[in-house]
Design brief:
- The protein is built from five helices and no strands.
- It is mainly α and 268 residues long.
- Helix 1 runs antiparallel to helix 2 (48-77), helix 2 packs antiparallel against helix 3 (85-108) and helix 2 packs antiparallel against helix 5 (153-180).
Amino acid sequence: MGSMSELLSIVGPAFGALVAIGFVVGSYLVVTIDRGRANSPSKDDTQVGLKIVLYALALAGIGMAAIAVIDLLSFMLGGFKGGSIPIRHAIAPIVVGGGVAFAMGKLLLPRTNTATARQIERFALGALATQYGVIAMIGATGVINGLALDMGWQTTANGLATLAVSGALAFLSISRLGAASSWSMPTPRPAAPSFPPQQGGGFPPQQGGGYPPQGGGYGGPQGGGYPPQGGGYGGPQGGGYGGPQGGGYGGPQGGGFPPQGGGGYPPR
């Protein structure tokens, strides 16, 4: 595997030209088909052709500069072997390609309606992300082969440089494409609410006692059992159910049910 610096003067401009021509042809084809729809977003856009040309030139400039940066980084990772020739070969593509990309993106494209009609921008970002995503995969393959097959450090350095530069361009392109397409990041699930126990006990006992209350039966007054002391079911002290002290069911003192001494139910 030869060094990319040996073919940089030919491959760099040729690669940028191929990218630009492919983008122009593909974009015009897609736009022409898309304009046949009634609700086409590019149907009333009179600057489509201008934006296609400007983005194509920007892609060509990025391609030229990216290849030069990959070669320069590979030269540095490989130990600066070969003298200053790789550095001198990389200067012109970086200056020309980077300058063209900067001029298109910062000087000319802002004068168009690309801020509101973003279809061509999405085309360019998609092409850039796909192109350098594939190149980054090739670089990762070179790194793995260089380590696993013991192909030498220079091969591994070329793969690392390709992976670093192309991976960065692919990541930035995908991020901008997502922003231009109004994507949304997934939101984490809300945590389940917790139910802290109430202070002072379980669920929940009455203050000062258990179940049943202190000293009494189930619902009876103080001093009474179930039924209360000396009386009927739920009655007061010494009485029957609901009767006064010592009485039966609604009877006077000392009476049972019916009250002592005879009588009907109940005497007045």
